[in-house]
């Protein structure tokens, strides 16, 4: 086990809800560039973008990034990163979604450190506390964990259900960033679609149904996943706010 880490960003051009979103302009850059720059700033040994479209390759190369072309027939981003990882000299693969331009650098680094320090963990992801009224949206995936912080279940429904008179249990919002041992990733993509996966349309359920344990790393930080043009506007406002704070902090130091 060499603990070398590759951060791979799947970037499918033909998103169903927001076609071409990975190249949508966000504060003067294509969205995928924001994600790539976060990954490059991390402690990962190698960073690349895995795509199915020459437009994405051209855009990535234009800003100095590294992209690889993968099959257009992959059913998921996980299958895409597995193809991109073939031949890479690494033990740990970090899957950073191409629609997470605000993913905190600390989350990427903490996930890498977690995998390096715990060789028994095959697969890991991230969850953040969230209020129940925020999590009603089925596009926001929820997760519940056991006493050892391994995932019990992921769902688009609000879990755990709070029955009248019941004791509330904090809800966790799932972030779509994953870490895999390379061997676990290869095992995962070789498995057929599972029953729960086909029902909820959440591929991580395939792992749980087949006995692959997923460790959930908790975070108190925040991000904005971009699924719609409205999300893109929210991400732009957040980036402008962050840049204003950074500029003000620099001026104070001067």
Give your account of this protein's structure:
- By secondary structure, the chain is α/β, with parallel strands linked by helices.
- The chain has a single domain (5-247), classed as Spore Coat Polysaccharide Biosynthesis Protein SpsA, Chain A (Alpha-Beta Complex).
- Helix content is 35%, strand content 22%.
- The protein contains eight helices and eleven strands.
- Strands 1, 4, 5, 6, 7, 8, 9, 10 and 11 form a nine-stranded mixed β-sheet that branches. The protein has a two-stranded antiparallel sheet with strand order 2-3.
- The longest helix has 25 residues, at 229-253.
- The radius of gyration is 18 Å and the shape is globular.
Short description:
Helices cover 35% and strands 22% of the residues. It has 254 residues and is of the alpha/beta class.
